[in-house]
Amino acid sequence: MSFCCGASMLGSRGTMFHQQSYIHHVPVLYCIVCQRVEVHYIIREDYELLAEFSSNDGAVDVDFNDYIDCSYEVLLENCVNHEDEDTHVIIYNQIDMALDLLNFAEQIDDKGWKYALKRRLQLLNSRRNMLHR
User: Fold this and answer.
1) How far apart are CA 7 and CA 80, in angstroms?
2) Which domain of life is it from (predicted)?
3) 68 plus 30 within the same structural domain
4) Which of 19, 52, 116, 119 counts the most CB atoms within 10 A of its CB?
């Protein structure tokens, strides 16, 4: 599981750009708060090799699934939420998790983590409010 802005990121698939190559269907982790995207850590080395080979070959569009055999379900096991879930469920799960982590951060008196979690909760709350409108 990867963390950003004080809590977990969502599992998804996306298109990554490396030099002049677009690599499609790459398993990624996505932060719904700051929109940071990173290649899923389990396949990061495979992605880097494919990205390097595709740019050296001059390939413009590459499908990750054509070259790397990995089970998407295995990758999602390490994610608390994933893009296929209902947006309301994702937001409420993320808020619930951030509140639990904030409680723990309070107990250990980690000021930096508390700040990151409070900011995350503010942004998640504004997203929740936008969904209700």
Assistant:
1) 10
2) Bacteria
3) yes
4) 116
